Amino acid sequence: MLHIFCPHCGEYREEEEFRCKGQAHIARPLDPEACSDEEWGHFMFFRQNTRGQHRELWVHSTGCRKHFNVIRNTVTYEIEKVYLVGTKPETEGAAS
Amino acid sequence: MEKYSALGLLKHSLSNHENWPRLWHNPTPKKKYDIIIVGGGGHGLATAYYLAKNHGITNVAVLEKGWLGGGNTARNTTIVRSNYLWDESARLYEHALKLWEGLSQDLNYNVMFSQRGVYHLCHTLQDIRDNERLVSANRLNGIDNEMIDAEQLQREIPLLDCSRNTRFPVLGASVQRRAGNARHDAVAWGYARAAAALGVDLIQQCEVVDMVIENGAITGVKTRQHGVIKADRVGCVAAGNSGVLAKMAGFELPVESHPLQALVSEPIKPVLDTVVMSNHVHGYMSQSDKGDLVIGAGIDSWVGYGQRGSYSIIEHTIQAIVEMFPAVSRVRMNRQWGGIVDTCPDACPIITATPVRNLFFNCGWGTGGFKATPGSGHVFAETLALGKAAPLAEPFSMFRFHSGALIDEHGAAAVAH
């Protein structure tokens, strides 16, 4: 069971209150009509699936219902950092 | 390889069963192979076996970073069935089921395949409609499947609560009677023994750390223990770690790895002679030959490689099981474990050529790879031998996520697919 700090509520809550929304920082193509099938398919379906430090988007779905980002180790499940959407702190080793 | 038979059993009983030969040897890897298979689970070993048996290619190595059949092959809930909705997947899983039916004889190894039937419960009108559609689609594809009502279901499975007193009353079920389960370890060991007997090198404790790629084509793999091993073609069958291998080769896959958990109870007397699964309350259960109840859970929604998941998932699963089988509510759980499953956005596998020439991937089986083991190995062997997708594998290319030709088995394929 993950113990997650919600930066909006300012406290640690249990995992069941949250939903993981997958890899963070996936930018929707600015002009979807101009995308090739390959570019659009890549945006829709292909993921880094990182083994190690992984940046992902979470939502406090049964709490404040706000989104935020997490850097979590996908092997040890340790949460290294929680940060607000719109920011992107540098960390050693984290992809993207 | 010594052929197993009743006579052999009798012969070895005279020497107190102390002289049975080893099932396979641990060879030192050669410098070069025709084909290298990365991953020594059920699918990888089956691939090696069918390469040798059907295509006469025996200069093959299986590289396994741990021990044979030690990953998801050893961690699944052993359910085998082929009642998939869409034509492409129905053909693939039915191909596997047909191979299952003759597998023990083919391998001369008892995989304990038991066609005890698999029930999909319907709790709502929509469930009934979905399952009637599934039954019809299966029958059009020549796959057995039938609908039964709650009364007949109660007669066939006395342990199941089919009364109206539950929160989600059972209205009926679809049942595939040719489906069932098998002994998971025996499948890996049987394939390994048969492949080794045909000349395949099974290299355990050999971890691939990099791919050797020249001019857009793969020429070998770099291993931690044995340096570079060359090969004309490489097939990766690494389940949860497929994404890691793809990254070595310089591309991404449309798969994400999630922990999937299962659990078994203490052994009890025989109470359930079949497999029951429910999409609606989300759980499934069978009873092993030892007597323990084998229970499946859902995946954790986040990416994880740690072979363990969250307790909330187990709790949710147990709630579903007690909803279906209130009589087992006080049975104690013995063990619980997790495996890493590589899930695809459309819940169908990937058997594919890749952007790197001569490199092939067989992955994305998600939560239901065990049932496909013989079929997966069979079509992947054909793919590796031909150097292009086998006819059954063609719809399962990774490039379907560019073209949009997805095979959407989500929901259609039930809980434990």
TrEMBL record, chain A:
GO terms (BP aspect): tetrahydrofolate metabolic process
One example GO MF annotation: sarcosine oxidase activity
Gene3D superfamilies (UniProt xref): Folate-binding superfamily
Domain of life: Bacteria
NCBIfam families cross-referenced by the UniProt entry: soxD
Protein name, as recorded: Sarcosine oxidase subunit delta
UniProtKB/TrEMBL annotation, chain B:
Transmembrane portions of the chain: none
The keyword Chloroplast belongs to this UniProt entry's keyword annotation: no
Catalyzed reaction equations: sarcosine + O2 + H2O = formaldehyde + glycine + H2O2; sarcosine + (6S)-5,6,7,8-tetrahydrofolate + O2 = (6R)-5,10-methylene-5,6,7,8-tetrahydrofolate + glycine + H2O2
Entry-linked PROSITE patterns: RHODANESE_3
Cofactors demanded by this protein: FMN; FAD
Keywords: Cytoplasm, FAD, Flavoprotein, FMN, Nucleotide-binding, Oxidoreductase
Broad class of where this protein is predominantly found: cytoplasm
One Gene Ontology biological process: tetrahydrofolate metabolic process
Ranges for domain Rhodanese: 35-79
Cellular location(s): Cytoplasm
InterPro entries, A to Z: FAD-dep_OxRdtase (IPR006076), FAD/NAD-bd_sf (IPR036188), Rhodanese-like_dom (IPR001763), SoxB (IPR006278)
GO molecular function, one term: nucleotide binding
Top-rank taxon, per record: Bacteria
EC number: 1.5.3.24
Gene Ontology cellular-component annotations: cytoplasm
Cross-referenced NCBIfam families: soxB (TIGR01373)
Record family assignment: Belongs to the SoxB family.
Listed name of the protein: Sarcosine oxidase subunit beta
